[in-house]
Design a protein that fits this description.
Length: 62
């Protein structure tokens, strides 16, 4: 039982590190978007989410 819990913790830790890494990379972009005078068009937002591929969305549902 102990080895199963250890693997689970390791997986969750790796997912958390990946999330933090992604947030650090996105922070400057989000700051720039916040400082823009005009809001982003809907097409730009849609293409951003499409480019992401949704991979992290499935990872962090659990």
């Amino acid at each position: 039982m102990h080895w199963i819990l250890g693997d689970y913790r390791r997986t969750q830790r790796a997912k958390c590190f990946n999330l933090v890494r992604m947030m650090k990379l996105l922070a400057p972009l989000l700051e720039e978007v916040g400082e823009m005078e005009k809001p982003l068009p809907d097409e730009a937002i849609a293409s951003f989410f499409q480019a992401q591929g949704g991979g992290y969305r499935e990872d962090f549902r659990s």
